[in-house]
Design a protein that fits this description.
about 220 residues, about 90% helix, 2 domains, mainly alpha, single chain
Length: about 220
Amino acid sequence: MKKFLLQSVLFTCLVLFISTRCVFAQTQNGRLISLKQRADNEIQKRVASLRVALTKLNTLTRLSSAQKSSFSSQMQTEIDNLNRLKTKIDADPDSNTLRTDVTSVVTSYRVYALFIPQIQILVTAEKILYTIDSVTPLMHTLEAQAQEKNETYLQTSLAGITNKLARDKTQITMVINTIIPLTPAGYPANKTILQEERTVLRTTYQDLKTIPQNIKSIIQALKK
């Protein structure tokens, strides 16, 4: 009888042990699946953002073919690397390896820290250059009219605006040439460069905001 009771107790303990291990294994497996799904979602969002950025890049007209090719190649490489990481994460067998790979989505791939800000800066730079180039022909026409009327003070004002436009165009072109070569390998050191170029864009934009009113005043003066 005692032997039977002992066997029953041992069997019960074994069943409880196995059940506990199964529950633990299921919980661990569930956590791995959940973490993989979250990582896959983050990767997919980044790949989608890069594809949108590539589309915007292809619409830019102020970049040279070499600049577009270089930047496009960088972004495509990032997309390919992210897709490879997704495949690896989906196959990761244990939590330690998985956590390392999931962390690398943020620490090793600078989609939102570098690539997207680069595109934003380039799009804004192109808009500013378009504005400058649109105003420049009008400036030449007004300068000719002021010279014809021998309005010295208007010629001086127009020369000042023309010089400002030329200076702004040079600065914005330098912004483009500075932004294009930045790579993920240089981050976070190149974060400062991004901030500096944004400042140049803001300063130039504020500078250009005063020009329409100045031109309007000059046109009114020329009509007198």
